Amino acid sequence: MAPITLYTTYRTPAGRAVEITAKLIGVELDIKLVDLVKKEHLTDEYLKMNPQHTVPTIVDNGVALYDSHAIIIYLVSKYAKDDSLYPKDLVTQARINALLHFESGVLFARLRGTLAPIFYQGAPSVPEDKLNSIYDAYVLLEGMLQSDYLVGNSLTLADISCSTSLSTLHALFPVDADKCPKLIAYLSRLEQNLPNHKEYNLDRAKAAEAFFKQKLIENNKAK
Ligand SMILES: N[C@@H](CCC(=O)N[C@@H](CS)C(=O)NCC(=O)O)C(=O)O
Hints:
With 223 residues, the chain is of the alpha+beta class. The chain has two domains: 4-79, Glutaredoxin (3-Layer(aba) Sandwich), CATH 3.40.30.10; 90-221, Glutathione S-transferase Yfyf (Class Pi), Chain A, domain 2 (Up-down Bundle). It is 60% helix and 8% strand. The chain has helices spanning 13-25, 44-49, 68-79, 90-120, 128-144, 157-172, 181-193, 197-221; strands at 4-8, 29-33, 57-60, 63-66. Strands 2-1-3-4 form a four-stranded mixed β-sheet, covered by helices on one side. Helix 1 (13-25) links the parallel strand 1 and strand 2 (29-33). The protein is globular. Bound molecules: glutathione (GSH). Residues 12, 14, 36, 41, 53-56, 67-69, 104 line the site of glutathione.
């Protein structure tokens, strides 16, 4: 099988979900890093593949697909040797889909809404309401954690997707163990049981944290 091309950035949680999924199911990726600062995602060529101009985008056998949640379902449905990451049972799929929407609409949206002003617009600090919206998201996750994993008792695409934004959020804005003990236990479980979690999540979350701190210093100097 020819490798699938993945257009991504090192830090993006969405791209990391695709990398983790591909690695877990043994799909080879040809990674092309896209420089968002140089606006490489706004070229005509990129927009033809993905009019939403987001990373990640994949090209598989000439077909371009975007949105990490759609991509990871596609990869598992097409290439995984079994359906454990996205079981065929419709109720289980609906539960996983709910968590994928939660990652997209809550975890990633709040992460992006908090970091984009610091990374790209020179903001000198994180407003309190944004910080609180992140802590509120942790409380929602605490309530959803009824078993060892987000859906049932084994690893699924719900964990892979949520682990990405969650690890970056936790590195920057740590989860309070008193308020969210189940979430803290879940984060340790991911460290033990999610393959490649260190390489794709923890190390890259650390890099995001370093970049965040450096930007805060620069933005405050420029004030
Ligand atoms: N829902 C999308 C979100 C992807 C996304 O927004 N990625 C950011 C980088 S973290 C991006 O591409 N930003 C550039 C842009 O929106 O123009 C996914 O899961 O793939």
